[in-house]
Design goal:
By secondary structure, the chain is an alpha/beta fold. It is built from twelve helices and six strands. 63% of the residues lie in helices and 10% in strands. It has a six-stranded mixed β-sheet with strand order 1-3-4-2-5-6.
Length: 327
């Protein structure tokens, strides 16, 4: 079986390669009497070694790579001051690293300050004519790097959105439910499982296009009844789940009844549509799988009652909690 190389392993390999490549330069600077440059480049090499170890053992950098960036920037500016044109070459990888390691706005500010400092030091070292051309070239590289990084970030955000949302209804999908639920599991949230009654028969009689329109309409009717802290997910087919981290079972049951009534009474649906809803309240830190299993049992009790019903874990329905629904 072929072993997959992870992003963290690639980053660790790059850090290790950088450390090994820089070490001879640090030794040479000491031998040439450039002690400040030797110290900064040597410290940068050691930091890269340590970063490679962190990535291999912990999977992340404790400082997010900021220490590497600070040392690399300092070493490159010292190199410009002591080596002139040769030292100016080190500014380009440092500038690129700034855009890749920092957030977009922080990278703009830091890159701008670094560009100004490198240009001024170059002007004092090699003359202002060459420094001006160097600064302009460095600025163009920074502009292209900014454009590239922003485009990559936009594409990543788009891909994350696609991965988390159901393409038909636009609500979150099961994959994101599994990812998000552990962040609120300690609150003991309430969940409701919503299933459209006789949906297969609707698809058979009216066609899949009509079925898709019904799914969209039911989704909107559900969302209209939810609050800001409630989240809706499509599990697949005609099943939806709503997780409510800040509500108790009574409040959730009121909402479930309003959803049931809104679907049953909506005049814009292509045919008569009803839903069965199962409700359950989680115990703190209960898994989503366990919670959904209990919701599923309650929902099938609603099905056995003929559908168009709200059932709670334990065999109760909403009326037994003495709920006064908003008609």
């Amino acid at each position: 079986m072929e072993k997959t190389v992870t992003t963290k392993q690639v980053r660790a390999a790059i850090a290790l390669a950088g450390a090994i490549a820089l070490f001879p330069f640090a030794i040479n600077n000491f031998l040439q009497g450039r002690l400040l440059l030797g110290c900064t480049s040597g410290l940068l090499s050691l930091t890269l070694f340590f970063s490679a170890w962190q990535l291999n053992t912990r999977g992340r950098l404790l400082t997010g790579g900021v220490d590497i960036l600070v040392l690399a920037g300092l070493a490159s500016l010292v190199s410009v001051q002591q080596q002139g044109v040769v030292g100016m070459m080190w500014c380009f990888p440092v500038l690129l690293a700034t855009h890749f390691l920092l957030g977009r706005y922080a990278a703009l500010w830091i890159a701008g300050l670094y560009l100004a400092a490198a240009t001024v030091i170059a002007g004092l070292t090699v003359g202002w004519s060459l420094a001006a051309r160097f600064g302009a070239t460095l600025g163009l590289v920074s502009a292209f790097a900014t454009s590239f990084c922003w485009r990559i970030q936009a594409q990543r955000m788009e891909l994350e959105s696609v991965a988390r949302h159901d393409p038909l209804t636009g609500v979150f999908n099961r994959r994101y439910l599994d990812e998000w639920y552990p962040t609120i599991a300690s609150h003991g949230p309430v969940a409701m499982l919503i299933d459209i009654d006789h949906f297969k028969r609707i698809n058979d009689e009216y066609g899949h296009d009509a079925g898709d329109r019904i799914l969209l309409k039911v989704t909107n009717l559900v969302l209209n009844q939810l609050g800001l802290s409630d989240e809706a997910f499509r599990l697949g087919g005609d099943e939806f789940v709503v997780v409510m981290p800040r509500r108790d079972i009574n409040d959730a049951a009121r909402i479930a009844h309003r959803i049931r009534a809104a679907v049953a009474r909506d005049p814009n649906l292509a045919c008569e549509v009803t839903v069965s809803i199962g409700l359950s309240e989680a115990v703190p830190d209960e898994s989503i799988r366990s919670l959904l299993k209990r919701c599923d049992h309650a929902m099938y009790r609603a099905k056995r009652r003929g559908g168009d019903s709200v059932q709670l874990t334990g065999g109760l329905d909403w009326s037994e909690l003495k709920i006064v629904a908003n008609q």
